[in-house]
Write a structure and sequence with these properties.
This protein is of the alpha+beta class. Helix content is about 65%, strand content about 10%. It has a five-stranded mixed beta sheet.
Length: about 375
Amino acid sequence: MITEQPGADLEQLEKGLAATFGAAQADAPLRALQLARGACQAAGRDAACARAVSVARILLAQGADPDTVAAALVYGAIPEAELDLDGIRAAFGPDLAGLLKGLARAGRIEALSAAGSDPEQLRKMLLAIAEDVRVVLIKLAERLAFLRTLTKADDAVRRAAGTETLALFAPLANRLGVAELRWELEDFAFRFTEPELYRSVAALLDEKRNDREAYIGRVVRTLTQALAGIGVDATIQGRPKHLYSIFRKMRGKNLAFEQLFDIRAVRVIVRDVRECYAVLGVVHDLWTPVAGEFDDYIASPKSNDYRSLHTAVVGPEGRTLEVQIRTEEMHRQSEHGVAAHWRYKEGRRADQKFDAKIAWLRQVLAWK
């Protein structure tokens, strides 16, 4: 979050870069930070420097590589007209210069959104020109940093920003599989476009997101210990459902809040199908299953070939919990194959060529 103490933010970022990347890898982003700071001070653009630092911190939290963070700092602090790409290439190398060139192209496409261009076409254009998918990641971080500054802005400004975010940026985050960026983008947009509905959904939750995340952490530890006891070495991921997702499910399926069993959820990834059913037995031994809330998509896959076990249980402290269980191959298919979750979330018809592009971009982003 941008504060009113840019010096403190800069110092925190410097420490974060050194701690995350180590002395050698932190060199490029640290030099980019100095370049950004100097350019902003010379031109009196303190606000631009603060925004660039905020974007860099978001990317750092996402596990971005040094060049991505460096490019975000330079691009955020120095206007495109003042950028010397040849100088950047000489000082930082071709990778960072290429990112800056891609950001400039993406910025021009993004500007079309304000002119009322079709959001789906803009999303495809942004992904099509993304020779380096990290360009889109930076644009998503920029949008989130921008939304964080609008909590006290005029209603009209917030509504416009929220509407554009839901139309353009949140679907991009969804398609690229950057879940933490997506839920924060969506929740800000929901808060800005439907403030009364946002407050009503928030009031239904009896705990804050941090408390729900702590609860998930306790569930993961309990389940990890139980599975180790039967010799199953599993990867367990957990997440609390965010407010916009709760609202969409209640509205889309005409459900009351009490009928939602996946407000808190964990996903267990194992080696083979035999272990999937073994984990299911452990889960049902640990916690009481919710009647009518078990689906075996392994024995009966969905039409898009999605496979997994889904069960809902009354977990610790009497709170309902969804557990998904799948093999590593099933998980890869869900994330990158024809069963990709992003299309299910958007409810769009299949486009084989575009789906392949998305799968490739997601894999490259994970690798980067």
